[in-house]
Amino acid sequence: MIKEDTFLEIRSLEKSFGSQKVLKGIDLDVQRGETLVILGGSGCGKSVLMKHLIGLLQPDTGSVIFQGKDLAKLKERELTFARRRISMMFQSGALFDSMTVKENIAFPLREAGIHDKEEIVERVAEALNIVKLPGQEEKMPSELSGGMRKRVALARAVVEKPCCVLYDEPHAGLDPVTADAIDHLIKDLEQDHGITNIVVTHEMRSVFRIASRVVFMKEGEIYWEGTPQELKEPKDQILSDFIHGRSAEPWGKPRP
Ligand SMILES: Nc1ncnc2c1ncn2[C@@H]1O[C@H](COP(=O)(O)OP(=O)(O)O)[C@@H](O)[C@H]1O
Ligand SMILES: [Mg+2]
Q1: Does residue 16's CB lie within 6 angstroms of at least one atom of ligand 1?
Q2: Ligand 1 contact via 35 beta carbon (within 6 Å)
Q3: Which homologous superfamily is 6-252 in?
Q4: Span 71-119, pLDDT tens digits
């Protein structure tokens, strides 16, 4: 039974690269308007899963269903439309260094065929307001701090007014204060703009600040799913070790 407010349905998703099975049957529903945090060790398949949600990768078997349609079965034009509804802030948050902030943020608009100068100026200003960087249009990325670059990357992700934003490690390399600022923006997008957020992060403080719900991935599967409150009192040893940053076998010896 599909809940009415289910935004994305991921069903039995499997993906291999060569002989390496990376996703081993992911089942997950994303609810409209929630901030879902995905946790898991490096290499467990988080980025690969995210790329399936914007149709950048196609599953070997299983499906990603968005607004009742299987993303893998969409025609190019429909997929382009879906990509505009779901946007992604990539792991590196990469900006084009030779372009101004304005040109970087306008890039997806031009790709979408919007060439009206006034509209572009307006939309870029609006996106910069959302990320609390008004008036920074003419700066070059090299003039910005790491935190500001992330915000510009986020402005670029929201300029097309998506209904869902995916963030792949948005806190990576940020100091705690800047990470906190990013969390505020993520929460603002949820609360003020009704955006559904899906966030991959290793920053545990952020998880408790932003998550409505948490899933923990392990070796290509969803190992645990629950609320931030449940995560605070993990009943499971593997989960507990992960959130407290404990290696299960320090120096190769079994945990005492
Ligand atoms: N395009 C690709 N081709 C081959 N292997 C890939 C590709 N993308 C990811 N992988 C492999 O899939 C596994 C999961 O990667 P990834 O999803 O990036 O991990 P993480 O959970 O750290 O984001 C890794 O072993 C990675 O090397
Ligand atoms: Mg990754």
Answers
A1: no
A2: no
A3: P-loop containing nucleotide triphosphate hydrolases (3.40.50.300)
A4: 888 888 888 888 889 999 876 668 999 999 999 999 999 988 999 999 9
Bridge partner residues of 96 (DSSP)? none
Burial-class residue 3 by CB neighbours within 10 Å (0-12, 13-18, 19+).
exposed
The structure's pTM equals 0.92
CA of 131 to the centre of ligand 1 (A): 30
Q: Please state the three-class secondary structure of 139-187 as a single string.
A: CCHHHCCHHHHHHHHHHHHHCCCCCEEEEECCCCCCCHHHHHHHHHHHH
Q: To 5 degrees, how large is the angle CA 241–CA 246–CA 251?
A: 130
Q: How far is the CA of 168 from the centre of ligand 2 (A)?
A: 7
**Residue ranges in 70-100 assigned as alpha helix (H):** 76-85
Domain spans of the chain, in order of start: 6-252
Taking the CA of 45 as reference, the closest ligand is 1
Question: Phi and psi at residue 196, in whole multiples of 5°?
Answer: -85, 125
* Residue nearest to ligand 1 atom 3, measured at CA: 17
CB 39 within 8 A of CB 45: no
